[in-house]
Amino acid sequence: MVALISMRKVSKFFDTFQALKDVSLDVNLGEKVVICGPSGSGKSTLIRCINRLEAHEQGEIIVDGVTLTDDKATLEKIRGNVGMVFQQFNLFPHLTVLENLTLGPRRVLGLDPKAAEERAMKYLNRVRIPDQADKLPRQLSGGQQQRVAIARSLCMEPRILLFDEPTSALDPEMIAEVLDVMSELARDGMTMVVVTHEMGFARRVADKMVFMDKGQIVEVGPTEQVFTAPKSARFGAFIQQILNH
To answer: Which residue ranges does the record assign to the ABC transporter domain (predicted)?
Structure first.
């Protein structure tokens, strides 16, 4: 197996608070990994370190053969290869959907306007909202905005997609439409790292589950194995609490 992401003994501090403690994790090419755990366990910090939105202080992170540093060329390469979908969509409110999608390909990848628009429409079709291209984000539902955010990441044609609790800001009826799009991406072979509490989605889609608590990885293993026979009592209790919620 080819490790597209390799983390070795990674630690991250916010002043005196240690958010990540000696975290080691591999994500292989085409693998779907779900990270779960209680609030404040370091899940979001971990994936933000993968695309260098947060800089780790100790250990090593290698993404697609590149060791992460603050070197400008390194950052540009990583940001091009690693897409990120946030909890709060992070769309530019003054730009139309189409303008949001073409901005990165034009400025970062150097695509001409026509090629950028063709690519944007391709991915709006992929997330099933091509008819929303000329609207502003505020004219869309939360679920549609998140699908636009996913399409925007896909427009950069990354090798890896990171999702930071992509459904937690959505109403229940909108969650399914976003998870359906993510499930399709998974079936198509996209390498994905997803922070989520959606255990039904995790069980259906993930190849590997990671359980974090207090900045550490407590358990990692094949999805069905950790659901049916978790090694850690803490993980077992966490899963039961969510499933019974």
So the answer is: 5-239
Tens-place pLDDT, residues 25-63:
999 999 999 999 999 999 999 999 999 999 999 999 999
- Running DSSP on this structure, what letter comes out for residue 110? -
- For strand 32-36 and strand 191-195, is the pairing parallel, antiparallel, or unpaired? parallel
Residue 89 to residues 10, 17, 51, 144, 172: CA-CA distances in angstroms? Answer: 27, 27, 17, 10, 16
Whichever domain contains 171, its CATH number is 3.40.50.300
Closest CA to 221 of 25, 3, 11: 25
Beta strands in the chain (DSSP E): 3-14, 17-28, 32-36, 58-63, 66-67, 82-85, 160-164, 191-195, 208-213, 216-222
- Please state the separation of Cα 156 from the chain's center in Å: 14
pLDDT category of residue 79 using cuts at 50, 70 and 90:
confident
Please count the residues of the chain. 245
The token pair at 149 is 């955010």
Question: What whole-number distance in Å separates Cα of residue 204 and Cα of residue 189?
Answer: 14
Q: Total domain count for the chain? A: 1
Give the predicted TM-score (pTM) of the model.
0.95
- Expressed as residue numbers, the domain containing 16 is 5-244
